[in-house]
Amino acid sequence: MNSNVHFCLKSIPTFSSLDQRIRGKMCSFASQRLYKVNEYIFKQDEAADTIRILLYGVLKLFRVNECGTETILDYVSPGEVVGYDTFFQQNVYNYTSCVAVIESRICCIDRANFERLLMDEPTLMQTTLSEMSNYLANLNQNILGNKIMPAKEKLKSTFLSLGQDHGVEIEGGIRINIKLTQQEIADLIGISRPVACQLISELVDEGFIDRKGKTYIIRKEHLCPNLFIMSKWKEC
User: Fold this and answer.
1) Are strands 104-110 and 167-170 parallel, antiparallel or unpaired?
2) Is the CB of residue 57 less than 8 Å from the CB of residue 231?
């Protein structure tokens, strides 16, 4: 058994409560891989034959249209599973590509073997369905929020979310550990780049954030008391 993989599976919230026997079976068809900055994890139309769990680092999910325009869908945080939307149905990533924003380590699980194990192990099936339900609930909440929330509030919420998932505590606030262009920020909340530029300037003027190039810092006085900065799972 790969003890390194077993340790990381135990450390991942999704699988931490599973019996050691089940994690042992998963380890038999799991491996780890280190990805460099800007290295693709997968591309649109590639075979969706692997379930991936980010151990540390940052991943970007995006799609490219026929004109070559890139639209960011989400950033993946340590501990999150990539591939829920392919379970039992898709053989390729129809609409999504994934790239490492910073050096990232991923636990890779063979999808076919994992799906067979799901059918044999009710506890694993229950755990996975629960996580998928949470994933869909959060997705629906984000969609609803994007429809009814004013653009500036969406931007504030996005900065706080990025700070929680990808933030580093510094004196005076939290630095978002991802370099973001104005277009990338606009894509995340579904507005135009000029509007994003204007709103970012307003948030700087209001003291909500500080900006240094493509780096953003959420000012300490605007942070929630219970903001949790996720570890980067370096021990794996």
Assistant:
1) unpaired
2) no
Q: How far apart are CA 107 and CA 166, in angstroms?
A: 19
Task: Return the HEC string of the chain.
Answer: CCHHHHHHHHHCCCCCCCCHHHHHHHHCCEEEEEECCCCEEECCCCECCEEEEEEECCEEEEEECCCCCEEEEEEECCCCEECHHHCCCCCECCCCEEEECCCEEEEEEEHHHHHHHHHHCHHHHHHHHHHHHHHHHHHHHHHHHHHHCCHHHHHHHHHHHHHHHHEEEECCEEEECCCCCHHHHHHHHCCCHHHHHHHHHHHHHCCCEEEECCEEEEEHHHCCCCCCCCCCCCCC
- pLDDT per position as a tens digit, 3-35: 555 556 777 777 777 888 888 888 888 889 999
Measured over the CA atoms of residue 160, residue 162, residue 167 and residue 173, the dihedral's sign is: negative
Tokens of 180: 């973001």
User: What confidence tens digit (pLDDT) does each residue in 56-108 have?
Assistant: 888 998 888 888 778 888 888 888 888 766 766 667 777 789 999 889 999 99
Task: Indicate the pTM of the whole model.
Answer: 0.70
